[in-house]
Design goal:
Radius of gyration: 24 Å
Distance between the termini: 30 Å
Helix content: 25-40%
Strand content: 15-25%
Bound molecules: NADP nicotinamide-adenine-dinucleotide phosphate
Strand order of the largest sheet: 16-15-14-13-7-12-11-8-17
Structural class: alpha/beta
Amino acid sequence: MAAKFIKVDPFDLVVFGGTGDLAYRKLYPALLHRDKSDQFTDPTRIVGVSRRPLAREAFQASVRDALTRFNGSEAVSPDVVERFLNRLDYVAVDASGDAGWADLKALLGPEDRTRAYYMATGPDLFGPIATRLGAAGLATPRSRIIVEKPIGKDGKSADAINDAIGSVFLEKNIFRIDHYLGKETVQNLMALRFANALFEPLWNSAHIDHVQITVAETLGVGGRGAYYDNSGAIRDMVQNHMLQLLCLVAMEPPSSLQADALRDEKLKVLKSLSPIDDSNVSALTVRGQYRAGFAEGAAVPGYLQDIEQETSDTETFVALKLAVANWRWAGVPFYLRTGKRLPQRVSEIVIGFRRVPHAIFETGADGIPANRLVIRVQPDEGIKLWLMIKEPGPGGMRLQHVPLDMSFAKTFATPTPEAYERLLMDALRGNAALFMRRDEVEAAWKFIDPIREAWAHLGESPRPYAAGNWGPAAAIALIERDGRTWNEEYE
Ligand SMILES: NC(=O)c1ccc[n+]([C@@H]2O[C@H](COP(=O)([O-])OP(=O)(O)OC[C@H]3O[C@@H](n4cnc5c(N)ncnc54)[C@H](OP(=O)(O)O)[C@@H]3O)[C@@H](O)[C@H]2O)c1
């Protein structure tokens, strides 16, 4: 089937934090690509908002510069770039003061098309911006708000943000972005499960031995040290992206792709997670922090040097063993790990099937390896199903473990769109299926908060690991003491 782009009705997208890193690096390039595909309908405007005074032309020039730097490899003709830049406008507004709101209101005029406000500022401004939008009469029952992570740093602060936004915008108009859900392979996980009759009958504890989810980065904290030191791996990665991936693996088939049908099923998974607290945190979690080592082909400093502090108990790595306590997943462990300064940049989900019950072939002491389904989220998106086959040639029945390998880049000629392209268009269309509902955010924090509290009660520092390793040895032990191994076959 050829790719088909469906036009989006005219819109005004107002980007708060419109001169920030996220906007320049991700949002404008994503919007340019959608414009290039002729998805926008005139009149459509994108309005950058931040405190600094900036003429419209200067703002357009700054976006032009960003598009050159962050466009990626996809060629875009100068005409398309010009058309896109002409859609841009800029207003200086202080989100935490009174300046600029009247100018924004005057520029926007009557709400005669879809209007969406994108919160690309720090989360402390989400609430104040919503409140001021309400006070200025700029938020109507039709207007939408798109909110970036992190939504709070615990359940309580998330509630405060959600309350502030929710008192101005209707829940159906609040789009909480988890950009992992916009990734092609993540949506492919749904296609794999629910558009094929093959896997779903096997998708349960009778046939699946365990599930692994890895989100590994080679980078350190870089310039985000101050933010990261107040966050840590569990809040930065697990509370949102990894639990969302887990939900898509573990949820029951929704009755439709309608937003609430999907989100109801994800919510049930989050509510089924067996709690981790003081009683079991040592057995089920491992925290780590990177030290100096070797990563990305060079010697690199440790975390404390990166954040220029003498001490910190913030984890840059975490591994967890989770249980989804329901009929389908009883007894199937879900192993999650994420970290910085790991040997490879990779995000993937591994479904480890059970071994064959009886071996009729001669095998070594380890027996016949179990089938594995590896869903690669990034980079090199694709799906591999590891199967046993007979090694070709004479010499008896020798078996070999080989992958049925589908690389999306090799299979499809069209480049994989960036997650933000899909998510921005969905929000502008009003399709909330790939966005988190408030109760999902709450349930995720309800699971994460007791883990962090239990770590605090333990009073232990994260375990050190040298940059360029797969976290502390205890993370390997977490899975190996169950007789399993992390998937480490990377090309
Ligand atoms: N960067 C990423 O790749 C990324 C990825 C995922 C999530 N996020 C999240 O996205 C948000 C933005 O991150 P970022 O990296 O883009 O931050 P950033 O580069 O520091 O940008 C912050 C933006 O907010 C504006 N701003 C700050 N205070 C303001 C105020 N009082 N009123 C109006 N505008 C104000 C800044 O412009 P002025 O200083 O001129 O006001 C700037 O445009 C954060 O919540 C971050 O966690 C970022």
